[in-house]
Amino acid sequence: MQDKNIVILAVHSGTKPEKEVREWLKENGLSLMSGTIEGDPYDTLLAWGAKGLPWLILTDEQHIITNAGFSLADLSIMH
Fold it and tell me: pTM higher than 0.90 for the full model?
């Protein structure tokens, strides 16, 4: 997605330790920035407006949400 100037950030909301998630990303050749929700992940996801997992959000350069709740397949036809 770099050729389209798209940056992907993965937010881990599961119960696996962050180290395991980073190892999984590395083993699968995925070069994604990632972070782990601290505290109750369901409360955080609810506050963010996530209605399911994965929850994909597309923003513009000013970080304004332009689309949310779409699939990875939809992403390929959006840009």
Answer: no
Tell me the pLDDT tens digit for each residue of 12-64. 787 788 888 888 888 988 887 777 788 888 888 888 888 877 888 888 888 88
Q: How far, in Å, CA of 2 to CA of 45, rounded?
A: 27
Buried b (16+ CB within 10 A) or exposed e, 26-54: eeeeeeeeeebeeeebeeebeeeebeeee
Rounded distance between C-alpha atoms, residue 21 and residue 36, angstroms: 9
Q: For residue 34, list its beta bridge partners.
A: 10
Q: Are 56 and 70 in contact (CB under 8 A)?
A: yes
Q: Give residue 54's domain range.
A: 2-78
